[in-house]
């Protein structure tokens, strides 16, 4: 068997960002509107600072307005809720997110519930979760899961119908929403987790595997059905040969010898998240102004 095709998340994300930029330009010239995307950062977590900076750069590169609100790590929940109320009311802000994780004095559920669902570009508000889970649709969809589905479709000729999809992980951020999105694509979906019995046999049923576990190189090549498509969401920092590096939840070297197509880490799912975020900001702006965007 030949080696798996590498799914180039970086290139696919760049192409999505270019399409979002083109539609943003269309919105500006046809309706005089510039979408605005805001990020709220509480504290100084170094990884969060990098994400927030990259989100800001991507937003501006797409021709949108970018806003960043910084609060100290000691901020109270009431202070954060006041910023959210201000963003909910600000007509220049079409979408915003509060960067997680939050300091422990702040309840993330109350924060998510306070965001106007129409501006909830993370897709975490219960109204958006319910729209996705019920199949009603029309809500804003979480970015990383949507990125996973775009990558899977790129590898499988755009049609996932009838595919046996195995999702490993059931978090509200990745596992559950990706399962709902795959169901909407007419996959037969199995959601596995830490209590799943005989996980290797379950994973081996998958024509499509989405690994969102947070355990470095857990999924080995001999867990994978020959020819399957593997989407690796994991971002795990490990020390190897005296160097720090990022690896996924899939053991890339053994998996690529068996899979039909596989995402690398880095350069797979990671770049899709920000591309889908700016797409959500564009969608939010168009929906709030009752404008139908041109199709690709
Ligand atoms: P999470 O909230 O910690 O959830 C992990 C899930 O994996 C849980 O459902 C857990 O099961 C399951 N799990 C843990 N150990 C397992 C095992 N041994 N066998 C089977 N299932 C197991 O993590 P997350 O937020 O979903 O993130 C998952 C990974 O994706 C992390 O590496 C994270 O850094 C990465 N991530 C990447 C992006 C991106 O942009 N690329 C975005 C978000 C997350 P239980 O529910 O039973 O505990």
Which residues sit in consecutive blocks of at least 5 with pLDDT less than 50?
none
Major sheet: arrangement of strands:
1-11-8-7-5-6
Helix/strand order, N-terminal first: EHEHEHEHHHEHEHEEEEHEH
The bound ligands are:
NADP nicotinamide-adenine-dinucleotide phosphate
Shape: globular
Number of strands: 11
Helix content: 40-55%
How does the SSE layout of this entry go?
Blueprint: E1 5-6, H1 9-31, E2 36-42, H2 46-61, E3 65-71, H3 77-89, E4 95-98, H4 108-114, H5 126-134, H6 143-155, E5 164-168, H7 175-184, E6 188-192, H8 199-204, E7 208-211, E8 229-232, E9 236-240, E10 243-247, H9 252-256, E11 261-262, H10 269-288
Parallel strand pairs: 1-11, 2-3, 2-4, 5-6, 5-7, 7-8, 8-11
Antiparallel strand pairs: 9-10
The chain binds NADP nicotinamide-adenine-dinucleotide phosphate (NAP).
């Amino acid at each position: 068997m030949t080696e798996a095709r590498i799914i180039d998340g970086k290139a696919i994300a760049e192409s999505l960002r270019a399409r979002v930029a083109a539609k943003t330009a269309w919105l500006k010239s046809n309706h005089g509107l510039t979408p605005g995307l805001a990020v709220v950062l509480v504290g100084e977590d170094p990884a969060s600072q990098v994400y927030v900076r990259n989100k800001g750069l991507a937003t501006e590169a797409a021709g949108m307005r970018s806003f960043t609100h910084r609060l100290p790590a000691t901020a109270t929940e009431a202070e954060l809720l006041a910023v959210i109320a201000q963003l909910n009311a600000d007509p220049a802000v079409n979408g915003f997110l509060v960067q997680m994780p939050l300091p422990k004095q702040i309840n993330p559920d109350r924060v998510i519930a306070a965001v106007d669902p129409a501006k909830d570009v993370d897709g975490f508000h219960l109204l958006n979760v319910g729209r996705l889970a019920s199949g009603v649709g029309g809500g804003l969809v979480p970015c990383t899961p949507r990125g996973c589905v775009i990558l899977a479709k790129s590898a499988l000729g755009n049609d996932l119908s009838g595919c046996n999809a195995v999702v490993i992980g059931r978090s509200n951020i990745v596992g559950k929403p990706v399962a709902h999105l795959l169901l909407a694509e007419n996959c037969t979906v199995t959601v596995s987790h830490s209590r799943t019995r005989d996980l290797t046999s379950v994973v081996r049923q998958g024509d499509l595997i989405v690994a969102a576990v947070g355990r470095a190189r857990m999924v080995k090549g001999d867990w994978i059905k020959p020819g399957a498509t593997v989407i690796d969401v994991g971002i795990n920092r490990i020390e190897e040969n005296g160097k720090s590096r990022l690896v996924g939840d899939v053991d890339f070297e053994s998996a690529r010898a068996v899979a039909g197509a596989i995402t690398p880490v880095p350069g797979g799912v990671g770049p899709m998240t920000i591309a889908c975020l700016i797409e959500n900001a564009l969608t939010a702006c168009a929906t709030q102004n009752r404008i139908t965007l041109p199709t690709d």
